[in-house]
Specification:
Pfam families: adh_short. This protein has 100 residues and is an alpha/beta fold. It has a single domain (5-99), classed as NAD(P)-binding Rossmann-like Domain (Rossmann fold). The protein has four helices and four strands; from the N terminus they run αβαβαβαβ.
C-alpha cells in the first residue's frame, strides 16, 4: 500500500525546522509544504509564479491558520533571481534545515 505524506511524517515535531520548498505552489511541492507546515516547520514556499504561491499559502492557512508559512519569489532559470532569493532568505536570519 502507498504511504501518504502524513504517514511518513507521523510523530515528527518539526517546530524548530525551517524548510524551503521550491515549486511549493502546486503538486508535490504544495503537498510537501502543507504537511511540513502542519508538523510545525516554518515553511518558505519558493515559487516563480507569485500568484500561485499566494493561492498555495491561502490554501494551507485555510486548513491550519496557526502554521508558519511565507512565500518568496524564485526562478531557478535566472541566476539573478537565485541571488535575490538567497539575499531575501538570509536577511530573515533563519536556519536552513530542509531544502527541497
Amino acid at each position: 500500500s502507498a504511504s501518504t505524506a502524513e504517514d511518513v511524517t507521523h510523530g515528527i515535531d518539526a517546530t524548530n525546522i525551517t524548510a524551503i520548498i521550491t515549486g511549493g505552489a502546486s503538486g508535490i511541492g504544495l503537498e510537501t509544504a502543507r504537511v511540513l507546515a502542519g508538523r510545525g516547520a516554518h515553511v518558505i514556499v519558493a515559487a516563480r509564479n507569485m500568484e500561485a504561491a499566494k493561492d498555495a499559502k491561502k490554501f494551507i492557512l485555510h486548513e491550519n491558520a496557526s502554521v508558519r508559512i511565507d512565500i518568496l519569489q524564485l526562478d531557478l532559470c535566472s541566476i539573478k533571481s537565485v541571488k535575490q532569493f538567497a539575499h531575501d532568505f538570509l536577511s530573515r536570519n533563519l536556519p536552513l534545515n530542509i531544502l527541497m
